[in-house]
Design brief:
By secondary structure, the chain is an alpha/beta fold. It has 11 helices and 12 strands. It has an 8-stranded mixed sheet with strand order 6-7-8-3-9-10-12-11, sandwiched between helices. Strands 2-1-4-5 form a 4-stranded antiparallel sheet, with helices on one face.
Length: 299
């Protein structure tokens, strides 16, 4: 297989949900509109946008939780609908936002990790493999393996979730807001873990986040979403450091800067937000090249 084939590629992907309320008429919600993205093997892509922009829908469609309304998702060049679900499920794993809800509270850490190891790596010594998994996510075997999820901190639980994804030999990890429910003091350590796993194990990561500032720490590439559309994408240094789309500039401006003092009584920023959001909801008719690999939407 050619090395330049992306591990995952979305080609003109769209998703429309039909809402059936108890009262009133049915209506359609266009969650995604003509999304085209790819992630090269061994790299990270940050998918940035506010709540409701369609980020998590992309993650769940890659996992085959939702079928596309149109378009194709390819894993290593192959349409994912033609790949056996068990084989595909081993290759693509998700780490969810809530580190506690993702673990069964009735089972110890040993159960959560040993079960996928025995199913997907039966040729390895299970105890040795378990120790290696915990080392990979910087957890102490003796202090962790026999604890229940409620006995661990949020950061430790999230590390167990990453270990569980590694237990099945995943090559692509979809990390859906993996640090948003953690204390600020430990968010950086979890982002550092993701960066180390990518570097040491050659993993590819789709990092879904609303915090554009953290994209710089983890991802080589960044795509910005609003209203189910990609409005800007490219190398993270260019997208974050030199944003071209008005919505990306708003996200960048929302990062707290102690050097800028707030002026009481001004509403100019609120008016700017309203105008940019109105623009971003209009259809994207194409992408303009503004730099090497740096694209911005035309509305």
């Amino acid at each position: 297989m050619q090395d330049n084939i992306p591990i995952i590629a979305l080609e003109n992907l769209s998703k429309t949900f039909e809402i059936k309320p108890v009262f009133g008429a049915r209506r359609q919600v266009h969650a995604l509109r003509n999304i085209s993205l790819d992630i090269p093997a061994g790299r990270s892509l940050a998918l940035v946008g506010e709540s409701g922009s369609g980020k998590s829908t992309i993650g769940r469609m890659i996992l085959r939780h939702y079928p596309p309304s149109s378009g194709v998702i390819r894993f290593r060049g192959q349409d994912i609908t033609t790949i056996d679900r068990r084989i595909y499920g081993r290759s693509v794993q998700m780490v969810f936002q809530d580190p506690f809800a993702a673990l069964n509270p009735a089972h110890r850490v040993r159960h959560h990790l040993m079960r996928p190891l025995l199913l997907h790596q039966p040729d390895r010594d299970p105890d040795e493999a378990l120790r290696a998994l915990l080392r990979a996510v910087d957890l102490d075997h003796a202090r962790t393996v026999d604890k229940y999820p409620h006995e661990l901190s949020g950061g430790q639980r999230q590390r167990v979730n990453f270990a569980r994804a590694l237990a099945v030999n995943a090559r692509l990890i979809i990390a859906d807001e993996p640090t948003s429910m953690l204390d600020v003091s430990i968010r950086k350590s979890v982002l550092g873990l993701m960066r180390d796993l990518k570097k040491e194990m050659g993993l590819s990561i789709l990092y879904i986040t609303h915090d554009i500032a953290t994209a710089q720490y983890l991802a080589e590439d960044t795509a910005v979403m609003f209203g189910g559309q990609i409005v800007e994408r490219g190398p993270t240094g260019d997208v974050v450091g030199n944003p071209q789309h008005p919505y990306t500039r708003l996200l960048r401006a929302a990062i707290p800067d102690p050097a800028i003092r707030l002026r009481p009584g001004t509403d100019s920023f609120a008016r700017q937000v309203e105008e940019v959001r109105r623009l971003a909801t209009t259809a994207v008719i194409g992408m303009s090249v503004v730099g090497s690999g740096h694209l911005v939407a035309e509305h």
